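hey can u check if this looks right to u? its 70 residues, i copy pasted from the old doc so theres a chance i mangled smth
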Amino acid sequence: GIAYYALVLLLAALNLPRLLVLVTTGGVIGSLVLAYILFFKIRSVCLVCISLYAVNILLFLASLKRLGIW
């Protein structure tokens, strides 16, 4: 968890937008897998988990914007 966000911060600080997009894409894919497990396998709702999924999606969108794609 914390290592992922530290890596995203480091890549942003070092101005490596392509690698940042790659890492945040992995974060979104991981969030989608975990959301599927949470909602359909465990059949639960976790506000903290959903908030982190949203943060990961926003980081991905911000990385796309930084790269100039979006």
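Residues 17-41 form the longest helix (25 residues).
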